[in-house]
Amino acid sequence: MIAAAGIASRRAAEQLIEEGRVSVDGHVVRVQGMRVDPTRVRIEVDGERVNVDARHTYIALNKPAGVVTTAADPRGRPTVLDLVRSHRRVVPVGRLDANTLGLVLLTDHGELVHRLTHPRFQIPRVYAAEVRGTMSREAATKLKEGVRLEDGVARAKTVKIRRRAASRSLVEITMMEGRKHEVRRMFDAVGFPVLELVRISFGPISLGPLASGKSRKLSAEEIGQLLAAAGL
After folding, report:
1. Are residues 36 and 70 located together in one domain of the fold?
2. What pTM, to 2 d.p., does this model score?
3. Of 92, 96, 165, 227, which is least surrounded by CB within 10 A?
4. Cα angle vertex 14, ends 13, 19, to 5°?
5. How confident is the model at residue 53 (pLDDT cuts 50, 70, 90)?
C-alpha cells in the first residue's frame, strides 16, 4: 500500500517497515506483506498519513488504429471500452485520434481524469511520430519555440530526432496538453506530415511491451506514481 500511494518503491517500502517507520492504526508494523484495507485503517509513514484509495480501477490500453477513444460512437466504430474488461464503469483519460496508436489510460477516478487532462496540471504526454521527409533540426526547434495553429500557438516540451532518412524520420515529441489533432497539425505546420503516430507514455505510465489491442491493470506502484503526478 505504501508503493501504491507513491511514497516509495516496493523495495524501499520494505526497508521503511524494517526501520519501524510504518504504522497501522497507531501500531508499528514489523511484518512484511501485511494485508490491510486502506479504506478501514489509518496507515502512516513517519507520522504522516498515507492516502490510498483501493476503490478505483486503473487500466492501460494499447489502442490500435481505427478505434475511437470514447465510451460510445454514433457511427458504430469500435471504442476503447470494447477492448477492456472491467466490472466498473471506466472512462478514457482524454482522447487519441482514431488513427493514432498507443497508450490510453482508463479509470473511474473522476478527479484524476480531470487533473490528468487539464493543461494547468502540466502532465506530459510523449509520442513517437514517423514523419515524411528528412526532419531538420530547424523544424524541431520551431516545434519547441511554438507554431501558430488556428486555435492558438502550440509548443512541444521536448523534440528528439531519433532516426532520419531520405523519405521519412522518427521523432519523439513531448506535449503538455492534448488539443484535437495537435501533434499532427504541428508537424504539418513545419512541413513534415505525420505518417504514423504512437503515444508511448502518459505522465509516469509507459506503454512498454503491451501488445496492440491489449490492456492491463496498473500496478500498485504505477497507481501511486500517477496519483502523485496529479497531486492526489
Report:
1. no
2. 0.79
3. 165
4. 95
5. low
